[in-house]
């Protein structure tokens, strides 16, 4: 069986790595991939990104299944185009991907279907937005409606900050079209977790839970990033919380999309805020796997991912279960100098340890030059994942891997997993 993974991040390296473990696989293509997928003898990079070329390639190579990593191609309709061409692909249609690509769409959907989320209103007029903020008070959250690569959200702790965010998005147009409309949302308090499931239009297969670390610096300080590390499972998602998330958030979403005439297919990611009483609220939906959550999740998946994906495409996810490594997996992101504002590219990377039974380093923003030297090529460069019988063991394994790696200006958090450790003791 031939499979193609679309994307070039750490998430896609982890997906392709996991798919390649299947005995049913003859070839795994990654389009366009990174240095990690290029170096892996089980994977083949394909230097294309345009949808029409991907379709031609998939037909020519007789690729039986395609999986999409990032949100941009999904929001642009890659799934619709593949299906129109008679090709099998796992992901949401362009319409369904609006659960991520338009925050106003997602909020209106949640309200219509009674899914717990923060109260909100949407504005395109700055004066009206300022008035609403004054009436609600701070803290309050301002979000650009469209895709903004994780940079479109301002959690304003003061009214002044909230007003500035409105001016930045609606008057100065600093987020472009993505910020032409803003969603203003009530501030939620609690602990965040990532809840990712596979959906076939009707049935749901939950993946292992996880927790991301969004801020650049230790103790959740510094600017927001794409994510600086993650571990799985997330102890905040107790069996009771898990059942409630499925009942109150995931199933109503899947049923709601079907009832609206646009069944959801693909990975669905609910970003949760779990309050002190264990009540789950939806902060956001993503229409794909999380990055870096995918790296520890895939490190724990013992089932054949191609089997799960095929059930996802066929509409038979109710016939299959996922088996997980009982160990904890913990991933530490190694980011480039200057990340997240202006990541420096081109620095040589050395010391990447080989894969072992209890750890693996996934690549993200990396490339190989003509001489074969691996260099930095993006904000988040690598993710070192350790596996262990406890959070502490997984953590020390992940940092042991990370500490062998060198590149100029490397940034990493030293406290990935601290929240889980705190909970357990
Ligand atoms: P991502 O990069 O995860 O896709 P995004 O740009 O889509 O992010 P959100 O996930 O909606 O934005 O918000 C980013 C972060 O802001 C959240 O992870 C959370 O920490 C914080 N946040 C968002 N909404 C709220 C809220 N209503 N109350 C408190 N914090 C919030």
From TrEMBL:
Give the pathway. Answer: Purine metabolism; IMP biosynthesis via de novo pathway; N(1)-(5-phospho-D-ribosyl)glycinamide from 5-phospho-alpha-D-ribose 1-diphosphate: step 2/2
Any one GO molecular function term: metal ion binding
Residues in ATP-grasp domain copies: 107-314
**Which co-factor is required?**
Mg(2+); Mn(2+)
Q: Which UniProt keywords apply?
A: ATP-binding, Ligase, Magnesium, Manganese, Metal-binding, Nucleotide-binding, Purine biosynthesis
Any Pfam family the entry gives: GARS_A
Query: One biological-process term from Gene Ontology?
Result: purine nucleobase biosynthetic process
EC nos: 6.3.4.13
Reaction catalysed? 5-phospho-beta-D-ribosylamine + glycine + ATP = N(1)-(5-phospho-beta-D-ribosyl)glycinamide + ADP + phosphate + H(+)
Q: State the similarity comment.
A: Belongs to the GARS family.
Q: What is this protein called?
A: Phosphoribosylamine--glycine ligase
Protein species of origin: Paludibacterium purpuratum
- Gene designation: purD
């Amino acid at each position: 069986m031939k499979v193609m993974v679309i994307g070039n991040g750490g998430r896609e390296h982890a997906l392709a790595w996991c798919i390649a473990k299947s005995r049913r696989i003859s070839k795994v293509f990654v389009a366009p991939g990174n240095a990690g997928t290029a170096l892996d003898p089980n994977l083949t990079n394909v230097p294309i990104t345009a949808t029409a070329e991907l379709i031609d390639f998939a037909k020519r190579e007789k690729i039986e299944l395609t999986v999409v990593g990032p949100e941009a191609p999904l929001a642009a309709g890659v799934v619709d185009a593949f299906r129109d061409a008679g090709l099998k692909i796992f992901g949401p249609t362009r319409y369904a991907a609006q659960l991520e690509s338009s925050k106003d769409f997602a909020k209106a959907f949640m309200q219509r279907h009674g899914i717990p989320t923060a109260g909100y209103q949407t504005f395109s007029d700055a004066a009206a937005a300022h008035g609403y903020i004054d009436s609600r008070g701070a803290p309050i959250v301002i979000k650009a409606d469209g895709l903004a690569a994780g940079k479109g959200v301002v959690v304003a702790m003061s009214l002044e900050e909230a007003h500035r965010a409105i001016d930045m998005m609606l008057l100065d147009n600093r987020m472009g079209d993505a910020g032409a409309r803003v969603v203003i949302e009530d501030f939620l308090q609690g602990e965040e977790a990532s809840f990712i499931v596979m959906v076939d239009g009707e049935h749901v297969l939950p993946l292992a839970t996880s927790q991301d670390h969004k801020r650049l610096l230790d103790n959740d300080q510094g600017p927001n990033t794409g994510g600086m590390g993650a571990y799985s499972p997330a102890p905040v998602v107790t069996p009771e919380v898990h059942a409630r998330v499925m009942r109150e958030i995931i199933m109503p979403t899947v049923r709601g999309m079907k009832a609206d005439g646009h069944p959801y297919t693909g990975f669905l990611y609910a970003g949760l805020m779990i309050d002190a009483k264990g009540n789950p609220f939806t902060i956001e939906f993503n229409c794909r796997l999380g990055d870096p959550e995918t790296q520890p999740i895939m490190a724990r998946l013992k089932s054949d991912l191609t089997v799960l994906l095929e059930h996802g495409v066929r509409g038979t996810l109710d016939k299959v279960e996922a088996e997980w490594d009982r160990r904890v997996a913990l991933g530490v992101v190694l980011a480039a100098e200057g990340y997240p504002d202006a990541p420096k590219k081109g620095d040589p990377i050395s010391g990447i340890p080989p894969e072992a039974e209890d750890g693996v380093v996934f690549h993200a923003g990396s490339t190989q030059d003509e001489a074969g030297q691996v260099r930095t090529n993006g904000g988040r460069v690598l993710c070192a994942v350790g596996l262990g019988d406890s959070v502490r063991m997984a953590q020390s394994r992940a940092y042991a891997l990370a500490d062998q790696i060198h590149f100029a200006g490397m940034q990493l958090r030293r406290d990935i997993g601290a929240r889980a450790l705190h909970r357990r003791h």
